[in-house]
Amino acid sequence: MMDIEEIKKLIPQRFPFLMLDRVVEIKEGESIRAYKNISVNEEYFKGHFPDAPIFPGALTAEAMAQAACILLKKSIRDLDATLFYVTGVRMRFFKPVVPGDQLHVVIKTVKMVRIGGVFETQALVGDEVVARGEMTFACK
After folding, report:
1. How many Å apart are CA 22 and CA 69, to the nearest integer?
2. DSSP codes of every residue in 9-31
3. Per-residue pLDDT tens over the stretch 57-88
4. 116-124, long-range: CB within 8 Å, 24+ apart, which pairs?
5. Is position 48 annotated as part of the catalytic site?
6. pLDDT means per 10 residues in the chain (140 residues)?
7. Which of 111, 104, 117 is nearest to 72 (CA)?
8. Coil vs helix vs strand at 114
9. Which long-range contacts (CB under 8 A, 24 or more apart) does 45-53 make?
10. What pTM was computed for the model?
11. DSSP secondary structure letters along 37-94
């Protein structure tokens, strides 16, 4: 398990683009489970959409990307790279995420190499899948 301070040591994102609150499970080289609490007080809800706030799908994808980067950094120990870049995304969104939800992110390794990897991604609210896809990363 990792709290927010440990997460901040591994990825460079900060408020308002730090999209994870906690890592609840990590199996190096295999998978990671993390979550973000969705609060109505977050800045993007002022414009997306004020009368019916919905967590942006791009930020759901960002939460998945951040979890995948943590998995990469914890799995490739002698890696000197400080940044990973998303080089490919294939994503489907099924249901909106709204304030009060807890967004659970599940990432599974498809392929990992020294300079990046391919990951199966999934986001859930409760037991319901709200987004699913595949993401590819490379380091710099």
Report:
1. 14
2. HH----TTS---SEEEEEETTTE
3. 999 999 999 999 999 999 987 776 668 899 99
4. 116/72, 116/84, 116/87, 117/68, 117/72, 118/88, 119/68, 119/71, 121/61, 121/64, 121/68, 121/91, 122/64, 123/60, 123/63, 123/64, 123/97
5. yes
6. 96 94 98 97 91 96 97 84 88 98 98 93 98 94
7. 117
8. coil
9. 45/99, 53/98, 53/99
10. 0.95
11. E--TTSGGGGTS-TTS----HHHHHHHHHHHHHHHHHHH-TT-----EEEEEEEEEE-
Cis peptide before 12 (omega within 30 of 0): no
Exposed e or buried b for every residue in 131-140, given b needs 16+ CB within 10 A? Answer: bbbebbbebe
Tokens 């294939």 belong to 90
* Cα(23)–Cα(3) distance, integer angstroms: 7
Q: How many domains are there within the chain? A: 1
CATH number, domain containing residue 87: 3.10.129.10
Which residues are paired to 135 by β-bridges? 89, 119
Please give the residue range of the domain that contains residue 54.
Answer: 4-139
32 neighbors 23 (Cβ within 8 angstroms): yes
Of the residues 8, 22, 48, 108, only one is catalytic, namely 48
